[in-house]
């Protein structure tokens, strides 16, 4: 008998009925899958469940056969050590079939049961095959799109889609033009012959939205724009957005490793953009092989083995499936004691005068009180899109930095702007980034500033802990004067910088999103974010409207699994 761990994995959250056997000693992963292919339209939950009902027993049997064939122990010993299954997120009717099969098998073989979060499995398979320590992970799947990073025992959601998953968005467009499911590979194919047309591009901090670009794409198709041009431009904008937010996540966390997960990760253009972005900033990029990107039981078995080694099994009575299972709900038992991301590390050493942000190269001259910010070309983006974004953002940053200041929010004084060159010259403010000086008092101050912007009818757009400076402000406002208003100690006073993603709006939703972006960045950078999140709300309440905070609670309640509806 061998003592190597072998795990049987079962997957069936939506379309892939799949079973796998992972052998931890040889690192071999055997996968047997049977995809559901809708006759027309997208995934129908009932049809998908019928498919699972038929196909799960078949693929499980095939995987078990493989396990028996490769098993060296006596026939009385079970061929696998545990059964791991996707507990969610996914379509309820499909999940229940998988759950039932897994429970039955665990009882029949008398081996433990392991409940795996499908999204965490998409991430862990990349960590497993790359050997990276603590990467940021971009999950680009059908029903989801989000950025995850490990911190303090959980995978934190640094950013995510504000509406549909990325694959579903693409699939809806292809349905509109009459193509069969799944649409992603067809868009990739058609894009080869396309030319660039202007389409919306929406990122808010590390969150992003696909609804605007998708309606524009459908309208363009209805108006007779060549479909290959739309496909090409959809890929450029949608994948450009995902690449940009990934870069923001690397910049915010200080990580220099990125892994990709999910079915859309099979797209060569997406991988090319991520690869190029990472190369440009000196980070490492890894995409697992295609059979591990699309939904598959291999990733369930691999994570199952890690959980098994950590003793993370579940009792039958606790093994209910969860269609809304979020990755940040999972207690990451299999990584305890591992090193954390070195958060708070900047890209520049003390004394060095150049900082590479997510967007720009920033030259700091504190002794003369000056900062020069240059949005350099991002070669992963289409040049037309790149020119447009850099120009727009430079102009907006100049305009809103000054406007905020007039509305009483401390920001740097602007001394020069050149939109064509995407270059700004600003006053040097503060002593350090908020990321390195988090305190309830300082974030309370930020809460007040955001409320004041919103009261004036615009949003910051990217209020992260790196876009707030703390400590002695710029040239005006003597320390005494500011201390005299009795609010915060001088050391906790904050200035806002980097307004390039800001815009005018009177929608409560946009104000709530602004706060949500700040919240997520606190969650991503602080060990104990709760008191800080509370302090932001306190500060906001003092100046702004309660209904924005109410809307913020709605926004937080979203981000649930969305079916293909
Ligand atoms: C919860 C679970 O059921 C769900 N699964 C899922 O979405 O299947 P996945 O295999 O990760 O991704 C399927 C999506 O991946 C897209 N896709 C496949 N090949 C593609 C390609 N070459 N380019 C773009 N998209 C592609 C398909 O169009 C489809 O939308 C998820 O992970 O969100
Ligand atoms: N006016 C300023 N005064 C002092 N420091 C500044 C100023 N502007 C920028 N910095 C420093 O440079 C860093 C990067 O600047 P900025 O956020 O504007 O660039 P970016 O590329 O847009 O970054 P990101 O998109 O990652 O937020 C800031 O985090 C801050 O440390
Ligand atoms: Fe998936």
UniProtKB/TrEMBL annotation:
Keyword Kinase applies: yes
GO MF: ATP binding; iron ion binding; metalloendopeptidase activity; protein serine/threonine kinase activity; protein serine/threonine/tyrosine kinase activity; tRNA N(6)-L-threonylcarbamoyladenine synthase activity; zinc ion binding
Residues at which Fe cation binds: 118, 122, 295
Region annotated Disordered, chain positions: 458-489
Domain (Gcp-like) ranges: 30-301
Record's signal peptide: none
Chief place of localization: cytoplasm
Residues holding ATP: 354-362, 373
EC number, as in UniProt: 2.3.1.234, 2.7.11.1
A matching Pfam family: TsaD
Names of the cofactor(s): Fe(2+)
Family recorded in the similarity comment: In the N-terminal section; belongs to the KAE1 / TsaD family.
Function: Required for the formation of a threonylcarbamoyl group on adenosine at position 37 (t(6)A37) in tRNAs that read codons beginning with adenine. Is a component of the KEOPS complex that is probably involved in the transfer of the threonylcarbamoyl moiety of threonylcarbamoyl-AMP (TC-AMP) to the N6 group of A37. The Kae1 domain likely plays a direct catalytic role in this reaction. The Bud32 domain probably displays kinase activity that regulates Kae1 function.
Entries under PANTHER family matching the protein: TRNA N6-ADENOSINE THREONYLCARBAMOYLTRANSFERASE
Protein name per its UniProtKB record: Probable bifunctional tRNA threonylcarbamoyladenosine biosynthesis protein
Organism (species): Natrinema zhouii
């Amino acid at each position: 008998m061998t003592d190597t761990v072998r795990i049987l994995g079962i997957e069936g959250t939506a379309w892939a009925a799949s079973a796998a056997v992972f052998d931890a000693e040889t690192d071999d992963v055997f996968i047997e899958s049977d995809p559901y292919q809708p006759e027309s339209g997208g995934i129908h939950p009932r049809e998908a469940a019928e498919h699972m009902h038929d196909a799960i027993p078949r693929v499980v049997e095939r995987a078990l056969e493989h396990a028996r064939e490769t098993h060296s122990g006596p026939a009385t010993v079970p061929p696998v050590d545990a059964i791991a299954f996707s507990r969610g997120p996914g379509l309820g009717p499909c999940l229940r079939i998988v759950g039932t099969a897994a429970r039955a098998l665990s009882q029949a073989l008398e081996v433990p049961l392991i409940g795996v979060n499908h999204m965490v499995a998409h991430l862990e398979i990349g960590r497993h095959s790359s050997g990276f320590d603590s990467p940021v992970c971009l999950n680009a799947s059908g029903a989801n799109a989000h950025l995850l990073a490990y911190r303090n025992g959980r995978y934190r959601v640094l950013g995510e889609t504000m509406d549909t998953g990325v694959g579903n968005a693409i699939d809806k467009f292809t349905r509109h033009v009459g193509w069969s499911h799944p649409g992603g590979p067809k868009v990739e194919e058609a894009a080869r012959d396309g030319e660039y047309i202007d389409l919306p591009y929406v990122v808010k901090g590390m969150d992003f939205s696909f609804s605007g670009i998708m309606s524009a794409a459908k309208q363009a198709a209805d108006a007779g724009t060549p479909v290959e041009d739309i496909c090409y431009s959809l890929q450029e904008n949608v994948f450009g957005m995902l690449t940009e937010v990934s870069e923001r996540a690397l910049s915010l966390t200080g990580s220099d490793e990125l892994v990709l997960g999910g079915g859309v990760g099979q797209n060569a253009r997406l991988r090319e953009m991520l690869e190029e972005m990472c190369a440009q900033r000196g980070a490492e990029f890894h995409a697992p092989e295609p059979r591990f990107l699309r939904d598959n039981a291999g990733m369930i078995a691999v994570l199952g083995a890690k959980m098994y080694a950590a003793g993370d099994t579940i009792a039958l009575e606790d093994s209910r499936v969860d269609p809304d299972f979020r990755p940040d709900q999972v207690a990451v038992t299999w990584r305890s004691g591992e090193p954390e991301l070195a958060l708070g590390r900047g890209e520049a050493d003390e004394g060095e005068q150049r900082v590479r942000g997510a967007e720009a190269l920033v030259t700091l001259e504190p002794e003369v009180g000056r900062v020069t910010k240059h949005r350099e070309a991002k070669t992963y983006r289409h040049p037309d899109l790149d020119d447009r974004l850099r120009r727009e953002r430079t102009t907006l940053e100049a305009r809103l930095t000054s406007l905020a200041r007039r509305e009483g929010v401390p920001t740097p004084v602007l001394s020069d702007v050149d939109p064509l060159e995407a270059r700004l010259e600003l006053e040097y403010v503060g002593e350090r980034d908020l990321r390195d000086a988090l305190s309830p008092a300082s974030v309370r101050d930020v809460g007040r500033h955001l409320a004041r912007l919103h009261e004036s009818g615009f949003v910051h757009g990217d209020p992260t802990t790196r876009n707030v400076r703390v400590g002695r402000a710029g040239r005006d406002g003597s320390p005494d004067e500011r201390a005299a208003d009795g609010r915060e100690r001088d050391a906790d006073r904050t200035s806002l910088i980097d307004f390039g993603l800001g815009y005018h709006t009177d929608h409560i939703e946009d104000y709530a999103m602004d706060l949500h972006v700040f919240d997520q960045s606190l969650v991503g950078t602080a060990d104990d974010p709760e008191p800080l999140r509370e302090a932001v709300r306190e500060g906001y309440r003092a100046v702004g409207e309660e209904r924005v905070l109410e809307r913020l609670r709605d926004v937080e309640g979203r981000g649930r699994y969305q079916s293909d509806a």
